[in-house]
Amino acid sequence: MQEYKVVYDASTEVLSEWALPAVLLVLVAVGLVVWRYPGLLGRPFEVIGRSVGAIFACVAALLFVIAATTLYMDNSRLRAALQTGSYRVVEGIVTDFVPGDPGDHFAESWSVRSGTSVHHYQYVASQATPGYRRTLPHGGQIRNGLRVRIAEVDGRIARLEIRR
Predict the structure, then answer these.
(1) Strands, DSSP E only, in 10-164?
(2) What's the chain's average pLDDT?
(3) What is the pTM (predicted TM-score) of this model?
């Protein structure tokens, strides 16, 4: 019997992709401060400061709602799939591994042959998407020759296990 170690599980993972909504919340606060204290922008902007602040806060709030809702729904979908068993199991050896770079300019990519199918994976650590996306420079554990077992949901890695 082959033993696997779980290195990623969307149902227990703390959401690290919430940085974008957090930044948007800060921008909402900045807009509200400018709206409340229009003189902060300087004397020429005192007249339009309230309008600029209100528009800035509203746009940031709208973007926050869109980003937070999208992230929450995508992550909930992965978690639900794991709970109900609604995922495809991909098991095999990692091949064609191309590591990402430390600056996240290039995606990390690799393949796994499972049965008669070849499954390709590609991700960037800095993308705000749920699912496994830890690249080698950011502590990722994927390498050529590893035997892995993946719970895949719509091409995303909901759970990643590596053979010990």
Answers:
(1) 88-98, 108-114, 117-123, 147-153, 156-163
(2) 90
(3) 0.79
Task: Check: CB of residue 24 under 8 Å from CB of residue 66.
Answer: no
Q: Is 141 exposed, middle or buried (0-12, 13-18, 19+ CB in 10 A)?
A: middle
The amino acid sitting at 101 is D
Q: Are 82 and 159 in contact (CB under 8 A)?
A: yes
Rounded Cα gap, residues 84 and 80, in angstroms:
6
Q: Is the pLDDT of residue 104 over 90?
A: no
Q: What is the pLDDT of residues 114-132, one digit of tens each?
A: 989 999 999 998 887 889 9
Tell me what pLDDT residue 130 has. Answer: 83
Residue 25: per-residue pLDDT:
94
Dmax over CA atoms of the chain, in Å, equals 74
Q: Which of 44, 26, 46, 24 lies closest to 36 in space, CA to CA?
A: 46
- The long-range contacts involving 57-66, CB below 8 angstroms and separated by at least 24 positions, are 57/27, 57/28, 57/30, 57/31, 57/32, 58/31, 59/31, 60/24, 60/25, 60/27, 60/28, 60/30, 60/31, 61/24, 61/28, 63/24, 64/21, 64/24, 64/25, 64/28
